[in-house]
């Protein structure tokens, strides 16, 4: 049985197959509409989420399956003091697969060691968010036609943003990727990403504070929200939250085919005027997220859909 804790749990070849499957689902949704008949997905969300949880639920429903679960720690037995280990043993009796989001880093991993069903990490603290990464890879590959030879700007909260950590981990495995890391001093990527992932893999990268000056170089700009819930004090959050606002003026410095991605939710970091620019791909990314999760569910449940 397989779980998904980090994007590196899949080899590059396995990820390619997953993305191929997601593209086939996009083209032929009817072919998959009964693939999970009679199966259940549990969504165990100990931390708020709209997109990821509903995306998982929509994915399972599109496959003909059912969903059950909870959407906050306060509405689950966690509020009575139940451990993640006990919860997952119990859920294993109710469902065939589960997606878990938790504010504590490593909680889904602990759950996976006690589980008799596949566990998907749907975001653990500031650590990893592998299904967002699969979504991002699918979006990039589908819209750009490749996952190699790209200069990628990552902008905003690179310290606490788990989507960025997972995406860097995944992208260093492709050819000729250059990262431009754009953040205030206080929100730079953690040392373990800089040392153990970027430097270790000989990846070209630079760290800058100003977005304007690097715009013309980028093939892709991945914007992120400043992660209020991970700050230790409100003052720091308020000081940093509006440091980057992508607007049409900044977009005018960008390549004509640069893509703008954002895992969402957006707060102020992308001005709504950018939404109408053809380069804005963050709502398409949401749709790709459903196909990516459908493909992932099929692979972890080892369900193959034949042509007829
Ligand atoms: C992200 C997350 O939860 O880490 N959102 C998401 O899953 N779509 C990004 C964020 O919350 O800023």
UniProtKB/TrEMBL annotation:
Tell me what reaction this enzyme catalyses.
carbamoyl phosphate + L-aspartate = N-carbamoyl-L-aspartate + phosphate + H(+)
> Which residues are listed for carbamoyl phosphate binding in this entry?
51-52, 101, 129, 132, 264-265
The Aspartate/ornithine carbamoyltransferase carbamoyl-P binding domain extends over 2-141
- Please provide an example of a Pfam family that matches this protein in its UniProt record: OTCace_N
Q: Extract the InterPro entries matched here.
A: Asp/Orn_carbamoyltranf_P-bd, Asp/Orn_carbamoylTrfase, Asp/Orn_carbamoylTrfase_sf, Asp_carbamoyltransf, Asp_carbamoyltransf_Asp/Orn-bd
Q: Does the keyword Metal-binding apply?
A: no
| Pathway terms, separated by semicolons | Pyrimidine metabolism; UMP biosynthesis via de novo pathway; (S)-dihydroorotate from bicarbonate: step 2/3
Ranges for domain Aspartate/ornithine carbamoyltransferase Asp/Orn-binding: 149-299
Q: Which annotated residues bind L-aspartate?
A: 80, 162, 225
Top-level lineage group: Bacteria
Would the keyword Transferase turn up in this protein's UniProt record?
Answer: yes
Example GO biological process: 'de novo' pyrimidine nucleobase biosynthetic process
Which of UniProt's keywords are assigned here?
Pyrimidine biosynthesis, Transferase
Q: Which GO terms describe its molecular function?
A: amino acid binding; aspartate carbamoyltransferase activity
Q: What is its EC number?
A: 2.1.3.2
What EC class is this? Answer: transferase
Query: Which family is it part of?
Result: Belongs to the aspartate/ornithine carbamoyltransferase superfamily. ATCase family.
Its biological purpose: Catalyzes the condensation of carbamoyl phosphate and aspartate to form carbamoyl aspartate and inorganic phosphate, the committed step in the de novo pyrimidine nucleotide biosynthesis pathway.
Please give the subunit comment from the record.
Heterododecamer (2C3:3R2) of six catalytic PyrB chains organized as two trimers (C3), and six regulatory PyrI chains organized as three dimers (R2).
Q: Can you name this protein?
A: Aspartate carbamoyltransferase
Which species is the source of this protein?
A: Candidatus Galacturonatibacter soehngenii
């Amino acid at each position: 049985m397989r779980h998904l804790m980090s994007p590196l749990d899949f080899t590059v070849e396995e990820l390619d197959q997953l993305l191929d499957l997601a593209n086939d689902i996009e083209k032929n949704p009817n072919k998959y509409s009964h693939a999970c008949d009679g199966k259940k997905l549990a969504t165990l969300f100990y931390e708020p989420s709209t997109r990821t949880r509903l995306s998982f639920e929509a994915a399972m429903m599109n496959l003909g399956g059912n969903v059950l679960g909870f959407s906050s720690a306060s509405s689950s037995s966690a509020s009575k003091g139940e451990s993640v280990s006990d919860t997952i043993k119990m859920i294993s009796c109710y469902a065939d697969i589960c997606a878990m989001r938790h504010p504590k880093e490593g909680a889904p991993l602990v759950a996976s060691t006690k589980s008799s069903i596949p566990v998907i990490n749907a975001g653990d603290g500031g650590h990893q968010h592998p299904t967002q990464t699969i979504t991002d890879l699918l979006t990039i590959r589908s819209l750009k036609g490749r996952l190699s030879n790209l200069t990628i700007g990552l902008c905003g909260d690179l310290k606490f943003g788990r989507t960025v950590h997972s995406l860097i981990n995944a992208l260093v495995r492709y050819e000729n990727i250059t990262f431009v890391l754009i953040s205030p001093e206080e929100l730079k990527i953690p040392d373990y990403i800089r040392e153990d992932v970027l430097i270790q893999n000989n990846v070209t990268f630079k760290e800058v504070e100003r977005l304007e000056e690097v715009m013309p170089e980028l093939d892709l700009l991945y914007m992120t929200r400043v992660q209020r819930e991970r700050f230790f004090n409100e003052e720091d959050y308020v000081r940093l939250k509006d440091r980057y606002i992508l607007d049409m003026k900044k977009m005018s410095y960008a390549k004509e085919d640069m893509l703008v991605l954002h895992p969402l939710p957006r707060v102020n970091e992308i001005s709504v005027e950018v939404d109408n620019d053809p380069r804005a791909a963050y709502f398409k990314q949401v749709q790709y997220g459903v196909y990516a999760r459908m493909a992932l569910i099929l692979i972890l449940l080892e369900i193959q859909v034949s042509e007829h």
